[in-house]
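Notes from hallway chat w/ T.B., transcribed later so I don't forget. T.B. wanted the structure written out for a chain they're using in a teaching module, and asked if we could keep both sequence and structure tokens in one place. Agreed to drop them here.
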Amino acid sequence: MRRWLAPAGLLLLAGLAVVAHLPGSAPHYTAFSRGSFAVLASAEDALAAGRDGRALVDFRAAYDRALYEGNNPAAHRIRERMGLAGEELWRRRPKQAWPFLEAFALLGDDFTRDASAVENFALNAPQTTPPEFVYHLTRPDGNSFWETEPEAEWRGLWPLWEGWKAVTGQAQVDGVYLEAKPDWPASNFTWRLALPMRASNRPPFSASMTLECASAPSGPCWVKEGGRYQTAQPEGPGRWSLPALMTQPGQKPESVLLFTQGPPPRRGLAILLIRRYQPL
């Protein structure tokens, strides 16, 4: 009998190991069980307490987590909630309400459609409305509203890349180098920020743009729209403007390119898209 105890024990342990690794026995973790969206409760509490800035930060965190989890329907509902919060706040505090409405428009699948809806709501509200609507395409940290990061490159490498291509027949480039053209302005550095705005621009959604930098770099500034670069007009140290964007169907700002002699600014440019209305 004793000689069977060891094999029987091993068989029992093997059986337990198999059961423990069966798919049905393992806990099924979801975004909710991990607490990914617990921040939504914090957002609602902050909104009820009048801490609008905190509420918007938490809503945006929940939105980003939904995208990270691959849950696009949840992200859509969170964006809709930001828009509704903006509508509710507009009746009492229009200035505090605008960032919610701005986020609703910029994060949507069609900025042209959603921004038009937001502006129509504001213009028809009984409260006094601003003469212009300003969309912040960048954040204070220098990233875009959609969290893309700036690219800064030293142009001294470009001849080396071209030489490598001439010798090997292979292009060893990335980032801004992929777009470099011979007619680009002469400069030591380039800085670029992608603006992954989703917009149909149908009908055309005419707007203007201002670009500012506290460190006041000097150099040409270009805005890519509809696959082509436009030269922004200099308006003083560290400030440029583009008076007319999105004037044709299918056009939208895609990226901003800055040429500088010194290292580009760490926090980049503050980029604003502006829609102005004239009184009838």
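Follow-up for T.B.: The CA atoms of residues 258 and 274 lie 20 Å apart. Might be a good example for the class.
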